[in-house]
Amino acid sequence: MTKVGAPLIHVENLCKSFEDGEVLKNVSIDIREGDLVSVIGPSGCGKSTFLRCLNCMEYLDSGNITIAGVTVSRTGTEEHLDRPFLEACAQMRKNVGMVFQSVNLFPHKTVLDNVMLAPLVVKKEAPDQARENALRLLAKVGLKDFAARYPATLSGGQAQRASIARALAMNPKVMLYDEPTSALDPELVNEVLQVMKDLDAEGMTQIIVTHHMRFARNASDYIVFMDGGEIVEKDDGDVLFTTPKNERTREFLRHFTEEVA
Fold first, then answer.
1. Which domain holds residue 199?
2. Using one digit for the tens of pLDDT, what is the confidence trace for 67-117?
3. Which residues contact 201 (CB under 8 A, 6 or more apart)?
4. Has residue 1 been placed in a domain?
5. Total domains present in the chain
6. 191 and 21 in contact (C-beta within 8 Å)?
7. Residue 2: inside a domain, yes or no?
8. DSSP class of residue 184?
9. Per DSSP, which regions of 171-219 are E strands?
10. What's the half-sphere exposure (Cβ side, CA atoms, 13 Å) at 145?
11. Is 35 within the bounds of a domain?
């Protein structure tokens, strides 16, 4: 069930188009602090673009996004991105950590240095403070003994856990994950998903785009099904997987009956 509390994330009428067409169509959703939300749907339905708009990697065309009290808003009639809008986007990014399918750790830096880098450069933290925090986060994701290693020596699961620690080093209010386990061997998936479960237990607000239906059903406070650039249905996992209300949801989930049984 959804946790009690005011929405930490408020999205209203979010629209986004690219040259080849409209990707997000008036997407609206409220997500409360501490929720773990899984976003599922067919490839190309707008899931990744939705996440990228939430941390302003893509600028919304129109609508409103509010995260932890910071709002970015456009009417769709602006001729250019003005300074207040860009400043709001920069402020919002500070509240949002993001983990991608590809790890993108700096190969020439140790795991510890990767985790320390953003706090040192962006937040101007003192080196001792950044190091202490980075070691704490590496311990949190089970990599305490890997601080001096280089990314090339890590397994895929270890590298993705290091990426999560790197995102957490900026002390975000929200963590976003875009298919964080899709490039991993099956035996490495659970170690990454367990980190998300542990963060959920600590109260971190998380949105996960995933194809791992069993995880989505069992770990999420609720699941969002997207199709055609729209939120088609949002419900508790047990409800969504057993009695979906929308025919598009039923058709999509029909392919995953055995996985989530």
1. 7-256
2. 999 999 999 888 888 999 999 999 999 999 999 988 889 999 999 999 999
3. none
4. no
5. 1
6. no
7. no
8. S
9. 174-178, 205-209
10. 0
11. yes
